[in-house]
Design brief:
The complex is a heterodimer of chains A (272) and B (358).
Chain A lengths: L7 E2 L5 E2 L2 E12 L2 E12 L3 E5 L6 H8 L7 E6 L2 E2 L5 H6 L2 E3 L12 H7 L9 H6 L3 H19 L15 H14 L4 E5 L7 H18 L2 E5 L3 H7 L2 E6 L2 E6 L1 H5 L2 H8 L5
Parallel strand pairs in A: 5-10, 5-11, 8-9, 9-10
Antiparallel strand pairs in A: 1-2, 3-4, 3-6, 6-7, 11-12
Chain B lengths: L12 H4 L6 H21 L2 H27 L7 H18 L5 H20 L7 H21 L12 E2 L4 E2 L2 E2 L7 H24 L1 H11 L1 H6 L4 H28 L1 E2 L1 H4 L2 H14 L4 H25 L4 H22 L3 H15 L5
Antiparallel strand pairs in B: 1-4, 2-3
Classes of the chains: A alpha/beta (272), B mainly alpha (358).
Chain lengths: 272, 358
């Protein structure tokens, strides 16, 4: 078992810090259906943590628990060394946890720029009065945050569409805009729900590069759900494997790959 | 040809996010303001003020208010008439209760009071959406009209049940009452309209507007990225109520002078302002003006053409007016469901490239 406070060094030489988020014995039920059963794992600062598993394993539910969408019946979420009380999703976001969705959830009627700027809500605090006259704090904040947002736009290579309404964009670009919006919040943890779903090989390569770059450049901790095994094994530092709401494996990609329970879950097992 | 943005480069984020980023647009806007403030007051007469300018300016404020709620924040409201009545009666109580305070202040405070009432009736929006919310605000409409009809305190127990605006002045010039000069009433409303439009524009291009639009486009995603839905929705109700309240106060005090609540601020008023917003374009400040202009000016124009130009009898013209306006609304909405503002945007796109569209 890894030490609580000290980190480790990955194969490619990145330093991973201490535990930033820890899920302790989470159980989530919907009526009689147990979506997540007694799962514990931790997320360390600066690492790329993947959650994998077959369909219906409870991966998205897990992400929804982290982002405050569901409240688990049992178990605790520890964030930055403190036990998190029951929170609304927007409060979780204010704490610095951003996410993207499996089915894109952008604001279709707004331009790309406005979408990404909305991600800065955590940093913009000017009042209604100041905003009414576009003076003082409101104007200053608008300019400062625009500068930051432009960096993100640059980084994700979406400059040419910044004034385009999101509704007009193709799927691959929408995924990228959604990532930009999440990044604009300068999150300490970024949750990605199937960032490569429905993409072709080229787009997947692009997206993988962005995920790695984000982690590298901003030092963002990333928790991602993905179905493409190749992508997961290449990107992530540690992997949690879920099946039928239970955790069946946890470790580096190599460890997970050779884990018998994981192989059974994915390839099926002969019952006799 | 009409429209050039070549060479119009932005070098700062402030310049890029201004209301009229294209120079041509900006100068046209200044020109309109100049004409409105410096030319129109000297040439208008009583007929133009009462038939055209006052209703247009006041309905524009109401439409901007409703557009913030419906077009920007996506919360349907059918209570506009009732909320305008709150503004009117608040203004009346203030005018009669504190005659020494400027009418200017009264109108603004009326807006504030209406904002509070609007927030109260906006509370159901935290639980219900769409048509169901519309029905809930409909309750506000009927309740408020009933309240102002029944409770004598609101109309100072006058025998007729009406409220009448006493004479009030700004800088010695009468603004309300029988002695008001057309230009004074016009300028007073114009100041409010321009300031309201500027404030609305600033709010909607800033963070507050983004929060509202986020709630409108996808409330779950908005909450996930940190928008507090309670605050966003209620602030939309408050700002909307503020504008609608100002419109109501001006409608009563400056435009009509005397009001019987059921007649003036009934459900018809709610629908009229909602039509303005829909025809003008949801989520557009310009659209609010366009919608108000369409529904205020078109009947006046038709009347002048049919009665004055073609010599039809007045009653026949009045009925044809309904048919034509109604028909035009349907045609417009079929041709361009996103309203006059979208039509204007498309025209601008075309003009940018004209006469060489390729």
């Amino acid at each position: 078992m890894l030490d609580q406070t000290e980190g480790y060094t990955t194969e490619d030489g990145r330093k991973i810090g201490g535990v930033v988020m820890e899920m302790k014995n989470i159980t989530l039920r919907f009526g009689g259906v147990v979506a997540i059963q007694d799962i514990s794992f931790d997320v360390r600062e600066g690492e790329i943590r993947a959650i994998i598993g077959p369909n219906g394993a409870g991966k998205s539910s897990m992400l929804n628990v982290i982002s405050g969408f569901y409240n688990p019946q049992e178990g605790e979420v520890w964030y930055k060394g403190e036990k998190r009380p029951q929170m609304k999703p927007y409060q979780v976001a204010q704490q610095g946890i951003a996410r993207t969705f499996q089915n894109i959830a952008l604001f279709e009627g707004m331009s790309v720029l406005d979408n990404v700027m909305t991600g800065r809500i955590r940093q913009m605090k000017s009042g209604l009065f100041s905003q009414s006259f576009w003076k003082g704090k409101a104007e200053r904040e608008e300019v400062e945050n625009r500068a930051f947002v432009e960096r993100i736009i640059d980084f994700l290579e979406i400059q040419h569409i910044r004034k385009t309404p999101v509704g007009r964009l193709p799927y691959g670009l929408k995924k990228r805009v959604e990532l930009a919006r999440a990044l604009a919040a300068e999150p300490s943890i970024l949750l990605l729900d199937e960032p490569m779903a429905g993409m072709n090989v080229e787009e997947k390569e692009d997206m993988s590069r962005f995920v790695l770059d984000v982690n590298d450049e901003f030092g963002t901790t990333i928790v991602l759900i993905e179905h493409d095994m190749g992508v997961v094994m290449d990107l992530s530092d540690r992997v949690v494997v879920m099946d039928y709401g239970k955790k069946i494996g946890d470790g580096t990609p190599d460890e997970v790959r050779s884990n018998q329970a994981v192989i059974d879950a994915y390839l099926g097992v002969a019952h006799d | 040809m009409f429209y050039r943005e070549a060479g119009d480069f932005k070098t700062s984020y402030v310049a890029d996010s201004q209301t009229f980023p294209i120079k041509f647009d900006r100068f046209r806007y200044y020109a309109v303001l100049l004409v409105a403030f410096a030319v129109v007051p000297f040439v208008i007469n009583d007929y133009w003020v009462n038939a055209v300018f006052l209703p247009f300016l006041i309905y524009s404020i109401a439409a901007i208010g409703l557009n913030i709620l419906v077009g920007y924040c996506g919360q349907v409201s059918l209570g506009t008439g009732g909320f305008m009545a709150v503004g009117a009666y608040a203004c009346y109580k203030l005018m009669t209760g504190f005659p020494e305070v400027s009418i200017f202040v009264h109108v603004i405070i009326s807006g504030g009071i209406t904002a509070g009432v609007c927030v109260l009736f906006g509370l159901p929006s935290l639980r219900i959406k769409g048509f169901y919310l519309a029905v809930a605000t409909l309750a506000a409409q009927f309740f408020l009209v009933w309240l102002f009809n029944r409770v004598g305190w609101f109309y100072n127990y006058s025998a007729s049940g009406q409220i009448n605006a006493p004479e009030r002045t700004v800088l010695g010039v009468p603004i309300t009452g029988a002695e008001t000069a057309p230009w004074a009433a016009y300028l007073f409303c114009l100041v409010f309209t321009v300031v309201c439009a500027l404030v609305a524009r600033n709010l909607t291009r800033g963070m507050q507007g983004r929060q509202w639009m986020a709630i409108r486009d996808m409330d779950i995603a908005a909450e996930i990225i940190g928008v507090n839905p309670l605050k966003a929705k209620l602030s939309a109700f408050a700002v909307s109520g503020f504008f609608v309240g100002i419109a109501g106060a001006l409608f009563f005090a400056v435009y009509l002078g005397a009001v019987e609540v059921g007649e003036v601020f009934g459900i018809n008023k709610s629908f009229l302002v909602l039509f303005m917003v829909i025809i003008g374009g949801l989520g557009s400040i310009f659209g609010s003006f366009a919608g108000a202009a369409f529904l205020v000016l078109l009947p006046v124009l038709l009347k002048n053409v049919l009665v004055g130009g073609l010599g039809w009898p007045t009653d026949l013209a009045a009925h044809f007016e309904f048919i034509i306006v109604g028909g035009l609304i349907v045609i417009f909405l079929v041709a361009e469901p996103h309203g006059l503002a979208q039509l204007w945007r498309v025209a601008k796109e075309k003009l940018r490239l004209w006469p060489f569209p390729h």
